[in-house]
Design goal:
Keywords: Cytoplasm, Histidine metabolism, Lyase. It is an enzyme of class 4 (lyase). Belongs to the PAL/histidase family. It catalyses: L-histidine = trans-urocanate + NH4(+). Its EC number is 4.3.1.3. The protein is mainly alpha-helical. It has two domains: 196 residues, Orthogonal Bundle (Fumarase C, Chain B, domain 1); 278 residues, Fumarase C, Chain A, domain 2. The protein contains 19 helices and nine strands. β6 and β7 form a beta hairpin. α1 packs across α4. It is elongated. The relative contact order is 0.12.
Length: 513
């Protein structure tokens, strides 16, 4: 099994994916353990002094004005976890919770939080045991960290609340810890606060969305190329010299991908005998690289933000190398929230242009010789008419999901926390948008492959043929009389989500950009 070593210098997106989705084991490096011990010495020294220090010897948020005596400090740290574990709604997905816990461990291991080494070890032990705290959909405002979600994770660390075991059964966390020989943590000064105060949930979801969208944008280039081919469009618009004079890198990559897929096609540029030669194709076909390219460039910016956040130690207060413990605002989720919203906008537009190409494939007045709705016997058969309805419904929802969450702010904590990022909400809606985009691309792919097969006597590109064959092998049927359509669409969705498009195409084209 793959092992991820957590040190003091942050982590990588690949490590997050490996832990969240691949159940990679976690080890703490010696430099992390040393840094944890040094920072804890500073916190212990401050805790012994009479002067109040936020998070060490005071209350929290609007209650920070109260000095907490030594005999109440352990209770203070327990209480912040219990009271902040106030989430509601459906359970958050296991991979999100694992990413959330791992990223909090990453910050703890930086040595800037003042948490004891044994707390970090227990966090790693829980992840390695496959124990996943029950975290709920609602509770984070994306400022002062993802408070409620992280609190539910910290509750498990204390042996309280509910968690899911490696077998998928939800049980009391204390029972699960005991079964795996893990002792619950008795929190000390600052530790409860340090476990709650980060952007880890929204960052984890951003990293996973970037991983998904990287594959989806490449798959969308393939489905766009197949639609162009099925519509007998021209590939001249993909010439590299045209994209070089508008040098957006994503645009050039998308055009190159489409050109690679279409190489050797006998359909591209073929005109029906009863049609006048087309000088140019519709925007949804001709401008596919421009739209997909702009989205790719948005991905690149979001990836840069994620890398910076992965290198950060987000906590309040933080322990500095010179021994100071200082309050700060680094927990504000604005940088992450913005790019989560940007990605939802880009994904919505990619879905929108894909749906327009699908609609064109189904309309006999615009499809250049294809049967109405790609039906076997139009009128008796409805073909893919309602598949496009489903696609349109998904696009419509994506447009609603593209409304920025980060433009909103609701004051909290008696106006002490009077501006928040809503980054968690931005991340949650992006996850829905990514799932919708996958379905939209799957429907375009389903329609385009059927349309190519209906072009009797014309030979598709080798890459297109490879996609068609792989899709059929995955259980997605080709042209024919009407049948129960939902299973085909579901199989196409799984095919795209599991990387089937790229697995089919890249042995022919080489790696897509």
């Amino acid at each position: 099994m793959h092992t991820v070593v957590v040190g003091t210098s942050g982590t990588t997106a690949a490590d997050v994916i490996a832990v969240a989705r691949g159940n990679a084991r976690i080890e703490l490096s010696q430099d992390a353990l040393d840094a944890l011990a040094r920072a804890r010495e500073i916190v212990d020294a401050l805790a012994a002094k009479p002067e109040p220090v936020y998070g060490v010897s005071t209350g929290f948020g609007a209650l920070a004005t109260r000095h907490i005596s030594h005999d109440l400090r352990a209770q203070l740290q327990r209480n912040i976890v219990r009271s902040h574990a106030a989430g509601m709604g459906p359970r958050v997905e296991r991979e999100v919770v694992r990413a959330l816990m791992f990223l909090r461990l990453k910050t703890v291991a930086s040595g800037h939080t003042g948490v004891r080494p044994e707390v970090a070890r227990t966090m790693a032990d829980i992840l390695n045991a496959g124990i996943t705290p029950v975290v709920h959909e609602y509770g984070s405002l994306g400022c002062s960290g993802d408070l409620a979600p992280l609190s539910h994770c910290a509750l498990t660390l204390m042996g309280e609340g509910d968690a899911e075991g490696p077998d998928g059964t939800v049980r009391p966390a204390g029972e699960l810890l005991a079964e795996h020989g893990i002792a619950p943590v008795e929190l000390r000064e600052k530790e409860g606060l340090a476990l709650l105060n980060g952007t880890d949930g929204m960052l984890g979801m951003l990293i996973m969305a970037l991983d998904d969208l990287d594959k989806l944008y490449k798959s969308a280039d393939v489905s766009a190329a197949l639609s162009l081919e099925a519509l007998l469009g021209t590939d001249k618009v993909l010439a590299p010299e045209l994209h070089a004079i508008r040098p957006h890198p994503g645009q050039g990559a998308a055009a190159a991908n489409m050109a690679a897929v279409l190489k050797g096609s006998g359909l591209v540029g073929h005109f029906q005998v009863d049609e006048a030669p087309r000088v140019q194709d519709a925007y949804s076909v001709r401008c596919a690289p421009q739209v997909a390219g702009a989205g790719r460039d948005t991905l690149a910016h979001a990836r840069l933000v994620a890398e910076r956040e992965l290198a950060a130690a987000v906590d309040n207060p933080v322990v500095l190398p010179d021994g100071r413990v200082e309050s700060n605002g680094n927990f504000h989720g604005a940088p992450v929230a913005y790019v989560l919203d940007f990605l939802a906008i880009a994904a919505a537009d990619l879905g929108s242009i894909a749906e327009r190409r699908t609609d064109r494939l189904l309309d006999k007045n615009r499809s250049h010789g294809l049967p109405a709705f790609l039906a076997d016997d139009a009128g008796v058969d409805s073909g893919l008419m309602i598949a496009q309805y489903t696609q349109a419904a998904l696009v419509s929802e994506m447009k609603r999901l593209a409304v920025p969450a980060s433009a909103d702010s609701i004051p909290s904590s008696a106006m002490q926390e009077d501006h928040v990022s809503m980054g968690w909400s931005a991340a949650r809606k992006l996850r829905t948008a990514v799932g919708n985009l996958n379905r939209i691309i799957a429907i375009e792919l389903y329609a385009a492959t059927r349309a190519i097969e209906l072009r009797a006597g014309l030979t598709p590109a080798p890459a297109s043929r490879a996609v068609i064959d792989a899709l059929r092998a995955a259980g997605v049927q080709g042209p024919g009389p009407d049948r129960f359509l939902a299973p085909d669409l579901e199989a196409a969705d799984v095919f795209v989500r599991e990387g089937g498009v790229l697995a089919a195409v890249e042995p022919v084209t080489g790696p897509l950009a």
